[in-house]
Write a structure and sequence with these properties.
oxidoreductase, HMG_CoA_Rdtase_sub-bd_dom_sf, about 425 residues, globular, alpha+beta, about 20% strand, 16 helices, Alpha-Beta Plaits, about 40% helix, 3-hydroxy-3-methylglutaryl-coenzyme A Reductase, Chain A, domain 2
């Protein structure tokens, strides 16, 4: 076996060894010099406040880019979405498609807007979309919906925790009435209990209509939380609105078998001749690649197995006004690629954690609404269809990138489009 090179210093060792103890202490120690530039106290978006922020920043060239005349004319539309506003960032938007979706809710050929700075990304998703469309489209099914918030309570001992739970289970109808009094669209669908020693975690699961729903469930659960604190016969020693069991903006294994947001699965069967024509490879090679990389993903400790859902989701979420931080949880899922009984390719994706909405959040901001309008999916009654399009887009990306690796085109495409 080849010998490992153990003489190379790591980055931290290199940096620290080049500084004396005094220099290191000086650099890393606290500094109490007066702050020379302070923001205006008010975080709100008003023309006067924006002007004061730019006076403080004193950077004319940056201001001309971030606060261009078009942004100035529209800036009041951002007042519910941002604090300490100074302008907007412009990202290139491309379209991938046509993507034929044969879903329970989405049934059309879609041209999907993607906002990204990564060259080759839109081209890859567009190629996968066209492949799916030529194969007759992706079959897509919304499987489940639910958004959770998980308040937690600490007690002196297990006996107190048990008495608390015994009271909680008698209050479900009351909790539902309180939670739903805070929202016109949210419905409390389920409550479950988790006990860990003298800690109790309550899992509140909601259906949130066409909104992504994080703020909705927070407000609703807080109303129940306050009721519990004032009426529980066993007062908790400590209590917090969320105990980090919900998986909010984190990749967690629990959603693989359950749901957070919208759970969607998509599949397609593609003839071997079409795979060879468009991806320059074979179903057998793509299946072999998938098996080997599934083992690699398992060795790495990956939660779920997929090639790059995050690429599609980040670009899609930013273009369409979704919460981009939710990519951390939404990118959990399973991709399968196999040779079907006719010698063609079977491919499927299952994403249990799509946090998408067509109302609320950033969906009504000018550019983001325009992207949803391109899809014909802005507003009430469209969130399930948006989730199905999102899953089909991820399927397109998996097919394209696996095909590129199998044909030896992955590096070539990035060299051609990104250099």
């Amino acid at each position: 076996m080849p010998k490992l090179n153990l003489h190379r210093r790591n980055t931290m060792t290199s940096l620290v060894s080049d500084l004396s103890c005094t220099e290191l202490t000086t650099r890393l120690g606290p500094h109490h010099d007066p702050v020379t530039k302070r923001q205006p106290r008010s975080p709100y978006l008003t023309p006067k406040a924006v002007e004061k922020r730019w006076q403080m920043l004193d950077h004319t060239s940056a201001q001309s880019q971030l606060l261009d005349p078009h942004t100035q004319a529209q800036m009041t539309q951002y007042n519910k979405n941002i604090e300490n506003f100074i302008g907007t960032v412009k990202l290139p938007v491309g379209i991938a498609g046509p993507l034929r979706v044969n879903g329970l809710f989405a049934k059309d050929d879609y041209h999907v807007p993607l906002a990204t700075t990564e060259a080759a990304l839109v081209a890859s998703y567009s190629r996968g979309s066209q492949l799916i469309t030529q194969a007759g489209g992706a079959s897509v099914m919304l499987l489940n919906e639910g958004v959770t918030r998980t308040p937690c309570f600490a007690f002196y001992n297990l006996a107190d925790a048990g008495q608390f739970v015994a009271w909680v289970v008698t209050q479900y109808d009351n909790f539902r009435t309180i939670a739903e009094s805070t929202t016109r669209f949210g419905k409390l669908a389920d409550i479950s209990v988790n006990i860990e020693g003298n800690h109790v975690y309550l899992v509140f699961e909601y259906v949130t209509g066409d909104a992504s729903g994080q703020n909705m469930v927070t407000i609703s659960t807080n109303a129940v939380f306050e009721y519990i604190l004032h009426h529980s016969p066993i007062p908790p020693l400590q209590a917090f609105l969320d105990g980090n069991l919900s998986g909010d903006k984190k990749a967690t294994a629990q959603t693989l078998r359950s749901v957070r947001g919208k759970k969607v699965t998509a599949e397609v069967n593609i003839d071997a001749a079409l795979i060879e024509k468009m991806l320059f490879t074979t179903p057998e090679k793509m299946a072999d690649f998938t098996r080997m990389t599934t083992v690699g993903g398992t060795l790495s400790g990956s939660i779920g197995i997929n090639a790059h859902y995050a690429n599609a989701l980040a670009a899609f979420y930013i273009a369409c006004g979704q919460d981009a931080a939710c990519v951390a949880e939404s990118a959990v899922g399973i991709t399968r690629i196999e040779v079907n009984q006719h010698g063609g390719l079977y491919a499927s994706v299952t994403l249990p954690n799509l946090m998408v909405g067509t109302v609320g959040g950033g969906t009504s901001l000018p550019s983001q609404k325009a992207s949803l309008d391109l899809l014909g999916l802005h507003g009430h009654g469209n969130s399930q269809a948006l989730a199905e399009v999102c899953a089909a887009l991820c399927l397109a990306g998996e097919l394209s990138i696996v095909g590129a690796f199998c044909a030896g085109h992955f590096s070539r495409a990035h060299h051609k489009l990104a250099r």
